[in-house]
Amino acid sequence: MSRSAGVLPVAAFGRFRPGRGRVAFLLLLALLPPLAFLAAEAWLFDGDWQFPLDDSWIHLVFARSLAHGEGLAFNPQELVAGTTAPLWTALLGLLAALPGSLLLWTKLAGVAAHTASVLLVYSVGRRLGFSPALATVAAGLVAATDWLVWSSISGMEVNLFVLLMLAGMNRHLLERAEPAQPPDPSEKALPPLSFLLFGLAALARPEGLLLPLLAAADRLLRPLPMAVASTASQAEAASAPSRDSAGEPGLRLALPSRADWTGVLQGLLLTLLVVVPVGLAFHQMSGSLLPTTFAAKSSGGPGLLPDRRLLQAIFGILFTSQPWMTLLALGGVVESVRRFGGPRDRGLLLALWTLALPLASAMLSSGREVAVGNFGRYFFPLLPCVVLLGLLALSQLPLARWRSVGFGGRRLPAGALLLLLLVAPALFSLASGFGRYLT
Hints:
Structural class: mainly alpha
Largest sheet: 2 strands, antiparallel
Number of strands: 6
Shape: globular
Strand content: under 5%
């Protein structure tokens, strides 16, 4: 399939695997906060592990039922489609068969998912064009995000969803850079495996169903080849001399090719192969393809306009955890659009997902309640996204030229001051979350 001459081929992306030293550093950043929380909990409650939410205990009831071969049942011999996170429940069912405390195994599974997510943030950042240092900052900010650390030991599915979401985005960026091509024309191209990961994400959180749809849109949004775009720009400039836009990237779209449509259909089929069997199982248990808890989460039908209160609540959740990154995220969206069709084009999936989830949730809201989940957990998965978008906006600043800043008659390193400015709010929120978790 032909590509825009301005889009980097897959070889230019590299593998973006950090070296051993950086991996060790990232692992330390990711593991230290949740393990500190666990150590404090073990000391405070004398090893009597606890969960902060009733929903966590419900997952364990289902998990034990699965482990004993009784199916998805809360009460004995009463099958019910009562989980919106069937993949997480199934994982806990496997852990329930292990010796030891299921509560501790559940917490360790969340910590493992959080740790893997931090490593994936680094990889996604590199694929977005971040330097190794900036990608490390992104991973560090996510590692210190209070609600993600809290979620990792809460017994809930948030971190599993974040892991699958980031893994899918990482794979999507690779596939979009250079769609899989067969070595021989007679062989078939590989299907887009990112859709498989997004399908699994939808089984961890139902809002994950948006991901394959947005990924499909991103694969079909193709820029005009640079030569065609340049010709069009020159024609525009001739008719309007005041406009100097020749050769600039932007939203200049070409019609999707047959190969584009084939890849999207293959990907959506992969998603359906993952999601449909679970939906059919739910239908057999409860007469609906959706979990029974869906009806309990809303007191009415969706409204015609986005619920402003819900949008404000979502912004508040993100802002209190990552204030600078939340404010800068819109700049990252603009930068993603500005890069579209140019040498640094990385697609629009990250921006689309970060905007679409709040808007879709606000559109589906009945307006009678602000349904953000306990403590806002439905929208915790957006926190890594706003971090990546915020740093994408900052990546355009000439930071290399800011070697030092005058302060009180002294010259201080600008990079260290900027890092402190970015990290301080996250560390403050993390310290507050430490006390919140233990009370």
